[in-house]
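Query structure, 117 tokens:
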């Protein structure tokens, strides 16, 4: 299965930031975008195109509040909602599928569903 990732321009348009190579891994295929949510809050979305994995971290005052990691990713995109842009992730495994949505406005919210098919 292919891992479809939205173009960099989509993130720039939605959040005003461009993805960068993720420094910790040292791998050019691992990309990260850091989205400032407020003065003390930041959303980190990291993805590995080759490994088909995505990690979503939400920090308040430099402390990790939410840390979600998913493998078998099929789609990572930005959706337009009334409240603002939403990071949407879809992933699949044998006999099941999942979807994670992360909004940053008006407040941070994460919805995660994992269902048998």
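Result returned for the query:
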């Amino acid at each position: 299965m292919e891992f479809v990732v939205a173009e960099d321009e989509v993130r720039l348009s939605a959040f005003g930031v461009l993805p960068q190579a993720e420094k910790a891994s040292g791998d050019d295929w691992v990309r990260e975008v850091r989205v400032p949510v407020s003065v003390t809050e930041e959303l980190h979305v990291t993805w590995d195109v080759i490994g088909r994995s995505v990690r979503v971290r939400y920090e308040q005052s430099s402390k990790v509040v939410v840390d979600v990691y998913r493998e078998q990713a099929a789609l990572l995109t930005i959706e337009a909602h009334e409240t603002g842009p939403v990071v949407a992730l879809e992933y699949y495994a044998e006999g099941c599928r999942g979807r994670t949505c992360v909004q940053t406005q008006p407040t941070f919210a994460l919805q995660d569903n994992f269902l048998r098919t």
